[in-house]
Amino acid sequence: MAAQETRMLLKYTDEPGYTPDIGCYIKHGGYETLKKALKLKPEELRQEIKDSEIRGRGGAGFPTGVKWGFIDYKSGKPVYLICNADESEPGTFKDRQLMYKDPHQLLEGMMISAYAIQAKLSFIYIRGEMFRGAKILEQAIEEARAKGFLGDNICGSGYSCDMLVHRGAGAYICGEETGLIESLEGKRAYPRIKPPYFPAVFGLYQCPTIVNNVETLCHVKHAIDMGGKEFAKIGTPGNTGTRIWSVSGHIQKPGYYEFPCGGITMGELIYDLCGGLYPGRKLKAVIPGGTSSKVLNAEDRYTGKLKDGTPFDWSINDIPLDFDSFVHVGSMSGSAAVIVMDDSTDMVEALANINAFYAHESCGQCTPCREGCLWMNKITSRMMAGNAKETDADLLHSVSLQISGRTICAHGEAAAWPTESFVDKFRDEFLAKASGNASAKPESAYRLI
Amino acid sequence: MNEQETAKQVTIYVDGQAVQVPAGMNLIEAVAQVGKEVPHYCYHPKLSIAGNCRMCLVEVGSPMRDRQTGEAVLETDGSPKIGWAPKPAIACAEQAREGMHVRTESNLIKDCRNGVMEFLLVNHPLDCPICDQAGECSLQEFATDYGRGYSRFIEEKNVKPKRTRLGPRITLDDERCILCSRCVRFCDEIIGESFLGFVDRGSYSTLTNYPGKDFDSNYSLNTVDICPVGALTSTDFRFKMRVWFLKPTKSICTESSVGVNTEVWSREGKIYRITPRTNNAVNDDWMSDSGRELYKQVEADTRLKEFRVDGNRVKLGEALDRVVELFKVDDRVAYVGSAHASLEEQFLLKQLVAVKPGPVSLAAHEQDGDGFLISNDATPNLRGALVTGLIDQKPRPALPELAELIESGSVKLLFVVNEDLTQLGITEALLRKVDIVYLGTQKNQTSRMAKVELPMLTVFEKSGTFINQAFRLQKFHQVVPGPAGLLPDIHILSRLLGLFQGIEPKPTSLDNLWQAMANGLPALKGHAFATIPDEGVLLDASPYKHINFCEGETLHYNPDCTT
Ligand SMILES: Cc1cc2nc3c(=O)[nH]c(=O)nc-3n(C[C@H](O)[C@H](O)[C@H](O)COP(=O)(O)O)c2cc1C
Ligand code: SF4
Ligand code: SF4
Ligand code: SF4
Ligand code: FES
């Protein structure tokens, strides 16, 4: 039987007649979980989240319960909760669905989280371009405040926490949590050095702060609703819950798809859910988790051992869509944004496009990322402009290795890994560019402006 | 941090070599304890940690422990097994912990440094031969240590503004800027006011002023000192002289009683610039822009350069004979000392007073300080006048008592050091009633009316000591020779003293003089010029506790809790 979606977060979103207003949400059982949560102790809720084994959906897949456990309560400073709604990783468009179509689910998840970590104030930092989303959220917050689901004395519990929407101004780096915090403080979004600025200790205004992704916070609602242990039964061990995958590229039905972690494979996603490739085309490569994750060559076999020692031998189609499997095959699930490339793709051109993005988005603070990103971009642009050299492949690879692991924030890796993996996996194409210089396109096509 | 914490020492291992350092010391400083340098650009000991240049990457590790038993895991040879962190860490932000291991010379670290150097240079103009920083540029220096020697970069370099005026004294070359943010942090953290910031992103990031805000702080030139490259330049010094031709001499700034430690840079008898000299008890690494201008007094048109008697040029001997004569005519003398004079000069003047007694006055020169490195006292050595016993109380800005003494005819001769009495409440009409001997560096109304003019040397032309507001005894050294024919002031004063005492005048050296001072002045007991350390030495301030000095709080100085 063909693989299918199992929707939890997106359960109602695309149903006809489902609207983002609070009335509709309540009609569908909304805010009942919050009421239930407020009757429990914050520690109990935190334990439920630990038991649920939810992993962050923002990119790094870090266990949310563990993250909450780092909060420095001893400092006596106020604790803040921030929802990371900056969604800017190329290929990713799942948080947008959650915010635009079911904003109260996010608000409920946030208020439960806020109560669980005893936040004094909560924020939604939303990507600047999503101005309609900001309006929707602000409207939803008004509605929820009017009904006593946030603000003063929530549901008569005695706990108070308000919520503010803050719009970014269009920089990818504002999605990196410490850059986001700087930006929220009104400064240039220069990510902070860690140590010492771990958000759970020195976050917003140097107070303990939790930053979680939109989808993560929506999951919190469901984990509390069904109980942490029950939630952990969805998916596979260590890869719990459902997850929303954004699929784009050379595919019949691009879109967002929700199913349990590890519930289906890459092949099933591409061929069953997304209707397969365009007629007559062959799969060439897949970027599994947003452009910053390492590209996978469709021709390769992926072998190794799983965590429990079981050997695996997969084609690209066999890879289960969860957190760990993509680490096993040398990449990551990142923001769960699958970009499909068929045999019509010029891999140098694809990389040139990606490099233009990261060179444009590097905040410029630290040397390797600042200079390395632009250098790689200049090289791939030149290659596309018909001036490729045979040494470019090695040079690109070497430059990328001089960036990753040496920067202030993970933008370094985000920018270096595409180049490293494209050259690794499609080296011949990069070498061949030098002999095909004559048929090149003008350089200006690969400059982001 | 309380004392106990600061005192706590930990053992760390730098490339295997054990060393004791205070817990929490950053690894750049800690590694320096074994005589090794971790190359760095953005780190500055007096500024917050930015961690942006990534030049200081090192590997860190700690002894591994068994998860279950908690016991140390050992290598086959019995030595503790070290668990190395998977990624290199920046030494500037990493703090020393007990048992920590640090690698500064591994292949990974060499590769990191080479990588950062290459990145810093790809968009750098690399025209050291025409760059002002050449010779004192850390980029140039580390490039020779860690650079590839050839460039793999064949793309076009970024183009940025080459000559941006940031403020009245600062010019920026953006192409040379390595975006280390030292200058930005200096303004935010030390000046306490934001002037500079970055615009644009990535490799196009550009340093600039806050919109519409001139970088006109009186501390702006410190950014030139701390800029590791030739990006920030002093508009005044820019392209005037190659630094390797210049010789630095340790000196003390005379702008105020703070006693900022300086280095004065000269070549062939000419001064080109003054920069701050680190003294963590006085001025840290900073000095004012105005203090850097003071060397210009050396070549001022108003400089006194000749010994004169009754307006006629004479030799020193004749001038001194004339002074003796004036004393013989009428020795009802009054002295006006100076808090600008060195401790040695004040001491000799006090000796003179002992031989030829007369009332001594000294004028206060108060100003509105800035609460940082310019105090409310515009003189460098008021405390010296107290220590030498020239005065015994806080001076006032005018000298009405002296005016009265002249008015009443009880004073007929004035021996004036460095002051223009017409500025201190004594009219020209009054001055005409007395004979004046004037010792000073600059011409003024008083020198013009003097019977004898004895030109003095500026602080740059002689050596000596000052005592600052905190009673810190600090020495300065001769940077350049004085104008032809002039002699050190201590020489003039001791010759004069010799004449009065009937002793054969012999040349005075600072060392001889200090023997007499250490014997004669309790506060200086046990000190000698040669043994005063470069950072100065604190004298006992307790005898002067009762004096309510004019200074308020400045860096490292709080008038309410002086020792
Ligand atoms: C360059 C960069 C961009 C990022 N952008 C986003 C983003 O747009 N949205 C997001 O949720 N997390 C983003 N992250 C990850 C955040 O730093 C952070 O890990 C995440 O918000 C934590 O939430 P989670 O634990 O719920 O995943 C980004 C990270 C980096 C390094
Ligand atoms: S890695 Fe890139 S984005 Fe992150 S701080 Fe450094 S320059 Fe900025
Ligand atoms: S800043 Fe340094 S490396 Fe750059 S041109 Fe000047 S001297 Fe050379
Ligand atoms: S001007 Fe100099 S001090 Fe300022 S950021 Fe640039 S390199 Fe650093
Ligand atoms: S000195 Fe610049 S990162 Fe450490």
If you had to describe this structure to a student in words, what would you say it looks like?
The complex is a heterodimer of chains A (449) and B (563). Chain A folds into three domains: 22-233, 3-Layer(aba) Sandwich (Rossmann fold); 239-342, Ubiquitin-like (UB roll) (Roll), CATH 3.10.20.600; 347-446, NADH-ubiquinone oxidoreductase 51kDa subunit, iron-sulphur binding domain (de novo design (two linked rop proteins)). Chain A is α/β, with parallel strands linked by helices and 449 residues long. In chain A, strands 8-7-13-9-10 form a five-stranded mixed beta sheet, covered by helices on one side. In chain A, strands 3-2-1-4 form a four-stranded parallel beta sheet, with helices on both faces. In chain A, 39% of the residues lie in helices and 14% in strands. The model of chain A has no long low-confidence stretch (mean pLDDT 96). With 563 residues, chain B is α+β, with helices and mostly antiparallel strands. Chain B folds into three domains: 3-105, Ubiquitin-like (UB roll) (Roll); 124-299, 2-Layer Sandwich (Alpha-Beta Plaits); 307-544, 3-Layer(aba) Sandwich (Rossmann fold), CATH 3.40.50. In chain B, 22% of the residues lie in helices and 18% in strands. Chain B has helices at 3-7, 27-32, 107-122, 138-146, 182-191, 221-226, 316-329, 343-355, 382-387, 400-407, 428-431, 445-448, 489-501, 510-520, and strands at 9-14, 17-22, 57-63, 82-84, 89-90, 101-103, 164-167, 170-172, 196-199, 206-209, 232-234, 247-252, 261-267, 270-276, 308-309, 312-313, 333-337, 360-362, 413-417, 435-440, 452-455, 464-467, 472-476, 537-538. A seven-stranded mixed beta sheet of chain B has the order 16-15-21-20-19-17-18. In chain B, helix 3 (107-122) crosses helix 4 (138-146) and helix 7 (316-329) crosses helix 13. The two termini of chain B are 21 Å apart. The model of chain B has no long low-confidence stretch (mean pLDDT 94). The chains are: A alpha/beta (449), B alpha+beta (563). The A-B interface holds A 171, 188, 193, 195-196, 359-368, 370-375, 378-379, 382, 389, 395, 398, 402-403, 405-408 and B 49-55, 57, 86-88, 90, 93-95, 111-112, 115-116, 118-120, 122-123, 152-156, 158, 178-179, 197-198, 200-205. The complex binds flavin mononucleotide, iron/sulfur cluster (3 copies) and FE2/S2 (inorganic) cluster. Residues 56-60, 62, 64, 84, 86-89, 172-173, 175-177, 211-213, 216, 409-411, 414 of chain A line the site of flavin mononucleotide.
